[in-house]
Description:
Low-confidence stretches: none
Distance between the termini: 67 Å
Radius of gyration: 29 Å
Strand order of the largest sheet: 4-12-11-10-9-5-6
CATH superfamily of the largest domain: Type I PLP-dependent aspartate aminotransferase-like (Major domain)
CATH class of the largest domain: Alpha Beta
Largest sheet: 7 strands, mixed
Strand content: 5-15%
Helix content: 40-55%
Amino acid sequence: MRTFTVSDYLLLHLDKAPGQPRNQRIYQLLRQLILDRVLPADTRLPSSRDLALQLGLSRNTVLYGYEQLLAEGYLETRGSGGTYVTDTVPMLDGAPPASARRKPVAANAHSALSRRGRKLVAHAGASQQQWGAFVPGVPDVTQFPHKTWNALQSRIWRNPPVASLTYGHGGGHQPLREALANYLKVSRSVDCTPEQIVITGGIHQSIDLCMRLLSDPGDAAWVEDPCYWGARNMLAAAGVEIRPVGLDQEGLCPKPGQLARPPRFIFVTPSHQYPLGTVMSLSRRRMLLEYAQRHGCWIIEDDYDSEFRYGGRPLASLQGMDRGERVLYMGTFSKTMFPGLRLGYLVLPEALAPAFVTGMEEVYRSGHAPLQATMAAFIERGHFNAHIRRMRLLYGSRLEILQRAIAAEFPPEQVHAAGADAGLHLTLYLPPDCDDQAVARTAQQMGIAVRPLSGYYHQQSRSQSGLVLGYACVESAHIAPAFAQLAQAIRAHL
Length: 494
């Protein structure tokens, strides 16, 4: 049996990383041999000259690897005695023998995660496909006025103040907080000052911040059933007990037994329930506000896409009705601008705002001041409102095209749509015996992305069969042909 030699190993593996410089490759291969203890401490390496001859390379190529390993402490020179592997193995009581090999973490990933981590990964809802027919909740980013945005951004970057290039503080860029306070007051009847607004990285970060500052182990949250999977998963990841509450035509509808056990949090989408599209009635809103004030509950209002309403003016926020300071109002620019922007905001009760500003900076070290400054200018100069008006018309026309396509393929008593008064999606109800999960899989094979309605339910005994269809990011000319394909997938499971 031939004895292992460094030169043989390097000749065998040197060219297995095409495009990587050989000097770096020599360094990496030798380093791995030392870490794997194939080359134990006190092993003498060939001289750089001899190794270069054996490999057919220049001496400088080999010297690079040796010198890098010397600098990092893997090797040492002993005068004229040569180059040796140093003794860097930690001395631990009960340590496994040097020949022992660790199992890769990937082979044991499930057990390596915490219980909370396993639950989060197992129930993840994010999809790899975030564009095309019929991905829900995604705006048409091709229609964004990027030239206007770039001009504003370039003006800011020409001479940015030093403060905008260091860590953020104060809850966000002050002009953006001021612009948002004015915009929300007019468009959503939100009652707030700029100091009550904290700029975040989106809805998920807003929920996470609320949980970090307001929840303790054992706290519970009412969530709409069905509801947005991301919100439910973020609450569960924080260790909050999920208590699903059913819906009726007026919105969240807690039963007497649930009302008898007040939760710490009530998570709602009152202006456009996700995914059903229900609008919470005035009486139900007043009931929730009174209940929250009486029992000390925090209402988290997710107002994710109310700007796009096709049957009259956008509805006023729940926060604007709150006189007991129990509502935390969340919004995002992902639907009105583009998801890649990753900007959202929290409107907080006045008494909580200072703590949330501190918590935001302590946990996330917020920044992105130039980006926030661009967003502020975009709002202040009227571009934001103009963009929303233009997109509302475009999405409204696409909604009509999709509704006509549905009517052309199915009679209303078999398949019917609902929740299309606002937002970027509608819900297509299927017959109870139709497997919406199977329909979604079949559609995926056709290149059509839809979400099964049953997947949004926490309690499957309550679930209904249906599909959540996004139409905003589908070109108008492609909507009818794409739905014709989807109709084939539906019929295959009727």
